[in-house]
Please model this.
Amino acid sequence: MRIIVCIKQILDPRGLTVNRKAEKVFVNREEYLIDPASKAALEAAESFKGANAEVIAISIGPARVDEALREAMARGADRSILIRSDEPLDAFVVANLLAAAIDKIGDVDLVLCGDRSLDTACGEVAPRLAEALNLPSILNAAKIEIKEDSLTATVRQSGFLNVESKLPAVVAIMAEAFTGKHASAWRLIDAYKKWSVETWSTSDFGLSAEDLHPLATKKEVAFPPERQFGTQVKNAKELMMMLKRERIMSNE
Amino acid sequence: MDFELSREHEAFRKLMREFAEEEVCPVARKADRTGEPALDVIRKAGEIGLLGAAYPREYGGLGLGETGLCVLMEELGKIDTSFTTMIGAHSGIGTAPIYLGGSQAIKEKYLPDLCSGKKIAAFALTEPQAGSDAASIKLRATREGDSYILDGSKMWITNGPIANVMSILAITDPALGARGGATAFVIDTRQNGSLADGFTPGKPEHKMGLHSSPTSTLNFDNFRVPRENILGQEGLGFVVMMQTLDLGRVSLGAATLGGAQAALQQSMEYAALREQFGRPLAHNQSIQFMIADMAAEVEALRSLVYRTAWLVDSGKPFTKEAGICKLLGSEIASRCIDRAVQIHGALGYSRDFHIERGYRDGRITEIFEGTNEIQRILIAEQMFREVGVKIRP
Model:
């Protein structure tokens, strides 16, 4: 079984300061990490490694993304591929590039992505990727199980529901599914000393200029309007009274 | 000249930082209050390979050398000195004598389990009458066929109550004493989950700090060690133990660097947020001076520690620099944490805040692994040796 895990590297939010008055985000420390939802996807992929699965991590971006892919190998990926691009990309281009790379790899049984990244939180790549690959997609998955040529996923909507899909499929794993498991230090050192990251180019796939042209461009960064502080309630009884008073709950 | 760590060392630092923040930090305060060592966290660190940073891959380590151990100790030192002390005693001075002096068979027998945290190590040198005067040890090892029998006691042994494996120095020839008549051994203090015959650890000592790093006496009564467990040459165990302490001083310097860096970081964050007289503390020159002094000392210490680690990994002499790492590191860390308490005011004195724990925990670094007075003597000895003057008796 061949599993692809699409990885996103993000700026470490702990190195950022948000200045609401100036409406600016300051980068105090420019450090990058694997997005938590991508970590959850890697962890899900690693759990199938006992079942003879080959796990391939792919990411798109500048040279610094190499570090994230080596960490992906430390987290269980057998191979990793970096599609080098220094251009700003949107979900449309990212999905087109990933789909082309997955086609090139071939014989893929399962594609795992993070559901929503911590930085942009758009959640667009997985559904666009499924569309580009013409595969079924399952979004917001908390847990997946594989049975021969199908998979079952526990998906969060208003509650949780179980869904089934034939393989191959694209599944977006939610960040909350990550258990906090750390990378193996032995594999991490091997990822630097023994293994390499394959580097592909955006021109390797024969995609048209249209496929590589972002649909969305960033015009400005605007802050949402400031919200007033809520009211703190002491206990459930007080909360019930408040909800009834505001007519959110009925008085019955 | 290249001051950058290699990519694998940087990646290891990131993993170590993540581990320290996510696993050690959440349990540190509770462990300090209860005095219970965080054994689960040590087990987790071992399972992912963190504990063998310095040792070669063939023995289950990561092959990152002294620089790797310094990265580990610095990142842990930023979070909790108790935990760092346990790991320093295990990965550093507890395991190093086995690597430095063990036969191939002994290294293959012990190192993989120590690197993966399946077993915990301790370094047993100090005795009731032999602290700074380490050459005055009395623990006796008497030859009996292919074994030695240990009788006597050790004192102030970090990890004493929890270790399964110990590197220990004993007198094999009382006529020669420590210099020529002392032999180092690796011993198994537990067998099948129980204490080994002839070994009894004392109760954990009540200390000013390091509450969750257990320290105890060790008592040996007719304790049998196979002859193949000798580390280094028979009678020359003092050499192995002193080489180990030299290495330990470098990684201890790294731990104090972490502590000093954390004190600086927390002080800056607090000074930026805390407002008095209508402005943040950071705007007061008295606070700025303290921050600047801390930053200057931390930067100097960082250069010293990693240069010394580079000396070790390059196979160059490092005894003098190791002593300076320990001496300067412990004193810089003490000054930084003292300033951090001052900047935090009453909060710095509160037991509900990490600063107070750091203040109590850090004091020992000026005492253990050779007091700072001993370090000054050792450094002076090396300095005079360089000009052909021998100052030791």
Summary: DSSP finds 13 helices and twelve strands in chain B. Chain B touches chain A at residues 6-8, 11-12, 15, 18-19, 22-23, 44, 48-50, 53, 57, 62-64 (CB under 8 Å). The mean pLDDT of chain B is 95.
